[in-house]
Write a structure and sequence with these properties.
The chain is of the alpha+beta class. The chain has one helix spanning 3-26, and strands at 64-67, 72-75. Keywords: Signal.
Length: 81
Amino acid sequence: MNKCYVLCLTLLVTFCLVSSASAKCAANYTLAECGPLCPPACGMVTCLALKCEKDKRCYCTGGYSFSRKYNRCVKNQDCER
């Protein structure tokens, strides 16, 4: 096999794996008072956004949810219900 072909195939597989993890993450919502929750499987270490806007989603580390009251990620047990 050509080295370029192998490299391109490796990059494509990596991209597909990352894309599928993101899709699972984006579909995982929490309660109405809190924004979307990013499960640990997504591999995200920190909050990607500290504010939810109309057409955007924000994500927090596993075990945390976005609190509209505090405008940041908080532990799930601290998320107002």
